[in-house]
């Protein structure tokens, strides 16, 4: 499931699942934090059953792990995770940008411009969530402009998987150069611009969280907090 899908008519399980998933992906619930069924149930005003079912879904997503007789631990992030996910993202989105540069329509460029966010010194949690939603739409729109549906799906799934990392490295005001590269019609320039954007984000994540990631592949248990 996408981290950003809304809609009414959800069951109690779905409501709890989507709320917790959104909070984990945007770092409102930090890696290493323990979720206790009873406390979560009281927070959402539901019984433990839908909470238990929601946590089981989050465990399937790899976002929490069970702690016998304690609750559920929000899973950590390792340096290996950072490098692998950003390498995959650069490969996929670089290819998408190269194709999109020669195929993108004027209306699609205009839609990308509408998603531009001006530079901002800082954002609160609610604003960050909104920016992350817009950031996902922006990057998926570039992939869609490639004309390759399978590539578009892969880009979307990768972005969903690494939302927490994007949240840690996100800064406003960085997409104008990508639009200019796409408008040029130069596939190599578009690929280079998008790959550079992704790698700069990766370095920002690693620099910002140097003390938080474990370097031996062991899951992180504490230390990461939302960027401020």
Produce a short descriptive summary:
The protein is built from ten helices and three strands; from the N terminus they run αβααββααααααα. The protein is mainly alpha-helical.
What does this structure look like?
The structure is a single chain. The chain has about 230 residues and is mainly alpha-helical. It is built from ten helices and three strands; from the N terminus they run H-E-H-H-E-E-H-H-H-H-H-H-H. Helix 1 (about 10-25) crosses helix 3 (about 50-60), helix 4 (about 80-105) crosses helix 6 and helix 4 packs antiparallel against helix 10 (about 185-210). The chain folds into two domains: about 10-75, Winged helix-like DNA-binding domain superfamily/Winged helix DNA-binding domain (Arc Repressor Mutant, subunit A, Orthogonal Bundle), CATH 1.10.10; about 80-210, GntR ligand-binding domain-like (Four Helix Bundle (Hemerythrin (Met), subunit A)).
Principal-axes geometry comes out as elongated
What's the CATH superfamily of the largest domain, by name? GntR ligand-binding domain-like
CATH architecture name of the largest domain? Up-down Bundle
Under CATH, the topology of the largest domain is which?
Four Helix Bundle (Hemerythrin (Met), subunit A)
Figure out the total of helices. 10
Q: Give the count of structural domains.
A: 2
**DSSP strand (E) fraction?**
under 5%
Residue share in helix: 55-70%
- The CATH class of the largest domain, by name, is Mainly Alpha
Distance between the termini: 28 Å
Low-confidence stretches: 1-8, 211-228
The major β-sheet equals: 3 strands, antiparallel
Structural classification: mainly alpha
Supply Rg: 19 Å
Write the H/E string, N to C: HEHHEEHHHHHHH
Q: How would you write the strand order of the largest sheet?
A: 1-3-2
- Average pLDDT, all residues: 87
Count of strand segments: 3
């Amino acid at each position: 499931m996408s981290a950003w899908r809304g809609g009414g008519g959800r069951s109690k399980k779905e409501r709890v699942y989507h709320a917790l998933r959104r909070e984990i992906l945007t770092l409102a619930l930090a890696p290493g934090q323990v979720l206790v069924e009873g406390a979560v149930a009281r927070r959402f005003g539901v019984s433990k059953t839908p909470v238990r079912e929601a946590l089981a879904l989050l465990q399937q997503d790899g976002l929490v792990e069970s702690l016998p007789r304690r609750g559920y631990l929000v899973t950590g992030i390792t340096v290996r995770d950072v490098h692998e996910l950003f390498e995959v993202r650069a490969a996929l989105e670089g290819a998408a940008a190269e194709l999109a540069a020669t195929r993108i329509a004027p209306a699609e460029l205009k839609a990308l411009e509408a998603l531009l966010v001006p530079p901002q010194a800082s954002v609160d949690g609610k604003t960050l969530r909104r920016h992350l939603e817009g950031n996902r739409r922006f990057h998926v729109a570039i992939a869609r402009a490639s004309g390759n549906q399978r590539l578009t799906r892969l880009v979307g799934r990768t972005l969903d998987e690494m939302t927490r990392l994007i949240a840690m490295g996100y800064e406003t005001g960085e997409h104008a150069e990508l639009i200019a590269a796409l408008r040029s019609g130069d596939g190599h320039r578009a690929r280079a611009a998008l790959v550079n954007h992704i790698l700069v984000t990766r370095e920002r994540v690693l620099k910002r969280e140097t003390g938080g990631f474990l370097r031996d592949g062991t899951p992180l248990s504490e230390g990461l907090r939302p960027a401020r």
